[in-house]
Design a protein that fits this description.
524 residues; alpha/beta; six-stranded parallel beta sheet; 40% helix; globular; binds iron/sulfur cluster
Amino acid sequence: MAKYVLAADYTLMTDFRNVPLATFFSCLPTDYWHSRLVFRILANPPALNDQGQPIRVPYGLRKIEASLVQAHGRDSVVIADPRNVERYIDDETEVVGLHSMDPLGLGPVSMSFTMGGVLTPYTKAMFLDLVKRVQRPNRKYKIVLGGPGGWHFDCRPDMQETLGIDHIVHGEVDHLVPEILDRVIRGDAPPVMRFTNATAPTVDQIPKILGPTMHAMNEVMRGCGRGCEFCEVTLRRPRYFPFEYIGDEIAVNANDGQSSIQLQSDDIFLYQLENWKTMEPNADAVKDLFRFVMAQPGVSHCYPTHGTVSAAVTNPELIEDITQIVGGRPDKWIGIQSGIETGSPALSRAVLHRKAAPFSAEEWPDLVVRGTEILNRNYWYPAYTIILGLPGETPEDAWMTVDLIDRMEQIPGGHFITAPLTFVPIGVLRGEEFYNLDEMVDEARFNVAYRAWRHILLEVDQHLWQITEMPAPMKALVVATARLGGRYISSIMHRYARTKGFRIRAPATNRRQAEGHTVSFPAA
Ligand code: SF4
């Protein structure tokens, strides 16, 4: 069939019916019937082409495909449907390449949803299913794993042999894939290969995608530079893709009928950054980028994957201008993922480094509140992450994060979600201890997780209907399922609090209303 067979597990191949933020549900536990029902309804099967291959594929896997096609020709590479990947492997196959994101369920969202790994998330279950399918007795082909989830095997080194994975590749290797796999085929590649910044590709060494990507993702930059200690991205050298490159890749997705383009960016507001001292956005370059994307044939909307909230406070006009460019309005919000991580000024100073720049690290909680208000005022919908158990975090730090959620909930007309994640030791903190939620949680950390989930549930109840675009009957089913999933997670948490004897602190809005006060918004 093909010399190179590439695949990713099912959770990376479903688009979750394009429900905003539903990709979080790929980390639901497989252990209970409620979560199985939610997953079954939300995680629709991938669309297939005439040959039965997935049409939309994770962006990273498309890069590997492009690199191999460039070196060996179109017929040498196939991307398989994970549900029957074994069908694509035959005597001609020399390498099966697996793209991974959360292969062993150690990622922060999975660790949070599974009580620190006590339960099994779908990401892990589906990955194990994929690996099982590509095994054969006395096989001659090699199994090679890459992608952002490779670090899981550093934490669980015995799993590589247990699962029969011959080689694991770490690092940015878009341009080195053919050479690496030649070595694998010749039998002179080590079981684990690590590539550092020193060999990372320049933009012109990164091949362009050849087919549509999941969620119409197109990359516009790599690397960040704000220096958060728990983050792998910050270790990468910043690079920016030029318009001609971006335009060619967008055309691939637009030709597939995808009109809303997701711009892969580690911090979109740092695109073409010039002032590394203050980290103030290069506003003209950022606006030109959005203008360019919106001018591409077939594109009606675009939004970035990631951006830092301090940029909104630094330059509120930039947010206003981008909203106008992409057509944000009360019924068309612009999604963005962003990290809050902590509400503690001291921890911000210790771990987040330049995330608040050009402001001081200690101003971080205020920046988050002001930035959220600015984003919301301009119809931006931030999906925030909060990290439980950062090294050095005290219960007082955790209560400050609870206070921060309280303050954000008082923003009039405010909309955001807060996903509580447990600390995983990556970035420069590699080697630190995992935060095991089940063993290490205390009342303060529990309240952070509880309040974050409670807020998500409020948003699902009040806002999911407006921001979900699909025919009404399916929308009703999906929204009801998401509400069921949210309540299910909430009920697990109440049960958990009772078992541990934790008190749940009432939100400030409830406390103040109970005391007869009106709710006021903190000064911007
Ligand atoms: S701002 Fe985001 S991408 Fe940049 S280093 Fe911090 S966590 Fe990583």
